[in-house]
Design a protein that fits this description.
Elements (H helix, E strand, L loop, with lengths): L14 H11 L9 H20 L8 E7 L6 E5 L3 E9 L4 E2 L1 E2 L2 H7 L5 E2 L3 E8 L11 E5 L6 E8 L3 E8 L6 E2 L7 E9 L7 E5 L6 E5 L8 E7 L1 E2 L4 E8 L18 H16 L2 H23 L27
Parallel strand pairs: 5-7, 6-16
Antiparallel strand pairs: 1-17, 2-15, 3-4, 3-17, 7-15, 8-11, 8-13, 9-10, 9-12, 13-14
Helix pairs in contact: 1-2, 1-4, 2-4, 4-5
């Protein structure tokens, strides 16, 4: 089987171009596809795009960074999972400190009641639907930045350890209580909507202007956050830089672009075509396209991982740069 190299300046850049090229490969009209076919093509391309970006060695294509400002005397923080798939590192550029990753068992065993000070550790506490818990037994309210009347739900624990569920039909931008009869939520673990809205939906403690407990992004139906603790508990406002792994987006708009280098976009067509051959039960063509797909993945992995300026450190350590003269390598 002749294998083509995965390069070429005329490869598809946009989602629409990819769908059109896939249609031509499969001898279908590349103009207006019937709805079911267009939907299937979109699913195939998104599935293969995710598969490539999830492959070990492709992580750098999803790297990003953002900042989080601490609050004095606040130990817990959270980042929205809609855009953040994983927190890789947290560091304090002001004090030139890279925070050390530890687990919750370590924190509870060494210091169950942390003092305030300069944080040097961070501790992930999992995926949560509420980024901040009520400060005390409270009634909770919901509102949106746009008109809309989906039903909002919360589930959690009230005073005494009893589990309760509350719900209410929203009234757009006007805050409304989830349940006026439940005024003692002490822990909320679920916050969700019956349908997505065009606005940002927020959950609040005590009133519509009270402390925000959670938020649901536009187009989502659940609150979703990556939660973590800082140790020591920050005693002042510090801006932390967070290295993240970005969540892989679902491409839907014709002008959307893929997150892999343009010279390798044809691999996505091979992957989508492979899925179509499996659906058609075309064994001979499946084998041919699969060979192209696997070869393309190897080429992409090599391109991403083996940068010409990359030089491994034999000892497995890291070079330290002198803060006084950043162009000099400090002694180990």
């Amino acid at each position: 089987v002749a294998i083509h190299p995965c390069v070429g300046g005329d490869e598809p850049v946009t989602f629409l171009q990819a769908k059109q090229r896939l249609a031509r490969r499969l001898n279908k009209t590349d103009g207006t596809l019937v709805s079911a076919t267009a939907t299937r093509f979109e699913e195939r391309l998104n599935e293969r795009h995710r598969e490539l970006l999830r492959t070990p060695g492709m992580e750098s294509l999803r790297w990003g960074n953002m900042t989080v400002a601490s609050v004095a005397s606040q130990q817990g923080y959270a980042l929205p999972e809609q855009g953040v798939a994983r927190i890789n590192r947290i560091y304090d550029t002001t004090n030139r400190i890279k925070l050390t990753y530890k687990d919750l068992a370590w924190l509870r065993s060494i210091d169950p009641n942390p003092a305030a000070g300069l944080a040097t550790y961070w501790v992930p506490t999992g995926l949560v639907q509420v980024h901040t818990q009520p400060a005390n037994a409270s009634e909770v309210f919901v509102k949106s930045t746009a008109a809309g009347t989906p039903t909002a739900y919360v589930e959690g624990i009230i005073t005494g350890g009893y589990r309760r569920t509350a719900s209410v039909a929203m009234t757009g931008t006007t805050a409304v209580s989830l349940d006026t009869a439940i005024t003692n939520f002490i822990l909320i673990d679920k916050f969700y909507l019956s349908a997505s809205t065009t606005g940002i939906v927020t959950l609040h403690e005590d009133s519509g202007t009270g402390t925000e407990l959670s938020r649901i992004a536009i187009g989502d139906t659940h609150g979703k956050f990556l939660a973590f603790l800082l140790y020591l508990t920050p005693s002042a406002v510090v801006t932390y830089t967070v290295d993240i792994m970005r969540t892989i987006p679902t491409l839907s708009v014709d002008t959307d672009e893929f997150w892999i280098p343009e010279d390798f976009h044809d691999i996505l067509l091979d992957g989508a075509e492979l899925s179509e051959m499996r659906k058609a039960d075309d064994a001979s063509r499946y084998a041919m396209v699969k060979e192209q797909w696997e070869y393309g993945k190897k080429m992409l992995r090599f391109w991403v991982q083996d940068h010409p300026d990359w030089r491994p450190v034999m000892t497995g350590g890291h070079e330290r740069v002198s803060p006084e003269q950043s162009w000099l390598i400090a002694d180990a």
